Amino acid sequence: MINIAIIGFGVVGGGITEVIRLNKDAIKRATGNEINVKYILDLRDFPDSPYADRVVHDFSVILNDPEVKVVCETMGGVNPAFDYSMQALRAGKSVVTSNKELVANRGVELMAEAKKNGVSYMFEASAGGGIPEIRSMRTSFGGDTITEIDGILNGTTNYILTKMKNEGADFADVLAEAQKLGYAEANPSADVDGIDAQRKIVILTAIATNKLASCDSVYTETMTKITPADMDAAARFGGTVKLLGSSRIDHEKGKASIYVCPTFVPGSCPLAHIDDVYNGIRFNSPVTNDYMLYGRGAGRMPTAGAVVSDVVSVLSGVGAKELPMDWKTAEADFVLPFEENEFSYYVRIKTDSADETVEKAKLVFGDVQLIDGAPCGCVEFITAKIKEKDAAAAFESGALGEIESRIRVM
């Protein structure tokens, strides 16, 4: 029997004990041992839990017990999770986590400490819940070079956009419903303002490049301004609007474009058809071309299952055979300026003369593709590709008239 500890007995931490109970036979086949949750660290007591006798309030109890081989950190946030994780690694204990904020901000230090002490720091659950995208990148793509990543990386925002698409509902109404159902927090900013997706695309880019970019260097745009009119236009365009985390990697130059923003996704892309709380991640490489993973990117059991999969990987020795992770802090200029990226744009302009507005648009963007069925008093079109900085200058100049909406096109 191998002993582990759980730090943080919330939604995910509580799910870990359930996954271990349900899958004890599979775990024993994979590791040759049973897993025993010896300690649970939390500020609270859980008198009604079958694990009530495992709860401790002092981390040193876990730290000083040589029988604990793996620590599962599911606290969230950077502190004290970083301090606890570093102490555990120094004590020769492997650490597995679902904590995306910690990995995206302090992953370099944690991996270095794990390597120094001959243990593992693993985080499959941090960037896609139950979807094994990190393990796929470290195994299936071990001999390949990933150059593009696009992901629906947040189930809450995907649920909101799906409801807006299917029901023509306003953002605020669907957000309130998502909060009532427990999909969105009382303060939903991390989800709807793209911060959650930002951390995840930083992690995925680091897996592909071995360089951890600063989250502050990633352009991140809220999806709170998306309206039913935008969703309707996307449907008439043959697609939909998704909040995507994207990365375009130039391995030869050692640079990457990384950004999070609402995006018109054409129906020809599988990401357009991923709805509700599901996530999907599309990769592209010169060898494999397009490759996509799909599944539940969040939730108690999928995320806890990913944590347990990392525990099994550590205990079976499989993790040590995967593509090594030895991240470095990315150079200050690793992430290319967002304004240098090129996009096509969906644009909706309020106008009394559609023909005149289209002619003005052609002068700015070159050829434009009109979208039929625009709302009365508006014209809608898709621009040719143009640099972000040039598009921003055109939109802000006022030369095109009253712009109701502009959304980048995938």
Number of helices, counting only DSSP H or I runs of 4 residues or more:
14
Tell me how many strands there are: 19
The main pleated sheet reads as: 11 strands, mixed
* Poorly predicted ranges: none
**What's the level 1 CATH class of the largest domain?**
Alpha Beta
Alpha carbon gyration radius = 23 Å
Fraction of residues in helices? Answer: 25-40%
**What is the arithmetic mean of pLDDT?**
94
- Indicate the CATH architecture of the largest domain: 2-Layer Sandwich
The N- to C-terminal Cα distance equals: 50 Å
Strand content: 25-35%
**Shape designation:** elongated
Q: What name does the CATH topology of the largest domain carry?
A: Dihydrodipicolinate Reductase, domain 2
Structural class per helix/strand content? alpha/beta
Structure description:
With 410 residues, the chain is α/β, with parallel strands linked by helices. It folds into three domains: 2-130 and 302-324, Rossmann fold, CATH 3.40.50.720; 136-296, Dihydrodipicolinate Reductase, domain 2 (2-Layer Sandwich); 339-409, Phospho-2-dehydro-3-deoxyheptonate aldolase, domain 1 (Alpha-Beta Plaits, 2-Layer Sandwich). The chain has helices at residues 11-22, 24-31, 59-63, 81-90, 100-116, 133-138, 155-167, 171-181, 189-192, 195-209, 228-237, 300-316, 354-365, 388-397, and strands at 2-7, 35-41, 55-56, 68-73, 94-97, 121-122, 148-152, 211-212, 219-220, 239-250, 255-266, 278-285, 289-296, 328-329, 342-350, 368-370, 378-383, 386-387, 402-409. The strands form three sheets. Strands 7, 9, 10, 11, 12, 13, 15, 16, 17, 18 and 19 form an eleven-stranded mixed β-sheet that branches. It has a six-stranded parallel β-sheet with strand order 3-2-1-4-5-6, with helices on both faces. A two-stranded parallel sheet has the order 8-14. Helix 1 crosses helix 12 and helix 5 packs parallel to helix 10. The longest helix has 17 residues, at 100-116.
